[in-house]
Amino acid sequence: MTWFKRESGELDTSGEKKIRTEGLWVKCESCRQIIWKKDLAENLNVCPKCDQHFRIDARTRLSQLLDDYQVIESDLASTDPLKFVDLKAYSSRLKQAQADTGLKDAIINARGKLNGREVIVSAMEYSFIGGSMGAVVGEEITRAIELAIEHKLPIIIISASGGARMMEGLVSLMQLAKISAALSRLDEARIPYISVLTDPTTGGVTASFAMLGDLNIAEPGALIGFAGPRVIEQTIRQKLPQGFQRSEFLLAWHAGCRGSPETNEGIHLASTRIHVRNLSISPTSHSPASRAQRLIASFRALSPQPKPHSLLNSGFLGFRFGKLVP
User: pLDDT per residue over 134-154, tens digit each?
Assistant: First the structure.
């Protein structure tokens, strides 16, 4: 009789239970605080306890920075000119990154309004092969700069990159010179350029357009440099200072301050920390007016003779609720 037959089937021995709250919480790597994802998103992906800035994708940056924008579509895509293969074929890496991000390469160009002022924004996507800069990224940024020159619009470039894309060899290195030349034409046209350095900004990106802004703004705690800290330590055979190559460390060095960036009060007087998620000043400042004045004073101190087309003279720099306004 079929009543007494045992049906064959595999037993579930995993012992794992599905939890409904899985994926709703995230741990801050800085202070180890458990944060509800919704609260983190409402705080612009900044830890409410320790001010740690979480990495965010290019689309989120655009939506946080601009009131209204339109993505500048392009049909450019890498062709894998060297047929490069390491642990995995470069062509396979490209297809995987395109499927994961929905982008053709590690850049999004957009034209929109920032508190009523029209701007061009180029935002790099770090999750696309480490935000590395190949021929497509270089061409897209160059086209964005040329569009800014044509329409006489300020341009903001948000860097999040590990540097030049090694899979494209010399072709990727050529982008450093090409973008720098385009920025030189932008400079001659007297059009403002803001460079926003996020975590991480390294390699060829740092060596070219990331450091050429009329105003360079760095995210708190962002890794900024050319070679990585581990490579430097292995080369010089010395232990690097705590916080080396982080934005606060570089700010202290540039301002000529001595001591720890966390304890030296002169750093905050020279240049207040800026939250790049919405280009706002740190909550430790008092009022929007004083924040803007301190930033302007800092910019003048670092650049005693600003160019006639600098942000200070173009009427582009100001703050209202943490955003740049005319």
Answer: 999 999 999 999 999 999 999
